[in-house]
Amino acid sequence: MKLKNILIVTTDMERSKKFYKDLFGLDVILDNDGNVILTEGLVLQDKKIWEAFIAKDVTFENNSTELYFEEKNIKEFVKKLDSYEMPIVYVNRLMQHSWGQWVVRFYDPDGNLIEVGTPM
Question: What 3-state DSSP class applies to 114?
């Protein structure tokens, strides 16, 4: 068996596609009207469609999952975050773990938690 995709929920598909393109360079592979597959295996699902599938409400900023990316030039990436057209909500600013890895944590526009760290 192979893990194929990770799905996250969005309230604004166009805003999310732009966010993941601008900051992470992810491109749209397939756009099925409320279900969008991006490069690197990330899937964006419209909130209304997802809630209909699971018959439950979505809870944003639940802090129970995280998307993890690696970036060699983390300081330049943080500059990109700081100058992004939408305000970024940080969980923690750039910090260094005891094992030497630099990381920054923040939310996407819908409250999905993201960590970007230097390669291990």
Answer: strand
> Quick check: pTM over 0.90?
yes
42 DSSP 8-state letter: E
In one-letter notation, the amino acid at residue 27 is D
Which domains are delineated in the chain? Answer: 6-117 (3.10.180.10)
Tell me the two tokens of residue 106.
Answer: 């923040």
- Cα distance between residue 85 and residue 41, in whole Å: 25
Q: How far apart are CA 97 and CA 2, in angstroms?
A: 31
Across the chain, how many H-helices and E-strands are there?
3, 8
With H, G, I as helix, E, B as strand and everything else as coil, classify residue 47.
helix
The residues that bridge with 35 in the sheet, in sequence order, are 45
Please state the length of the chain. Answer: 120
Tell me the pLDDT of the chain (120 aa) as tens digits. 999 999 999 999 999 999 999 999 999 999 998 999 999 999 999 999 999 999 999 999 999 999 999 999 999 999 999 999 999 999 999 999 999 999 999 999 999 999 999 998
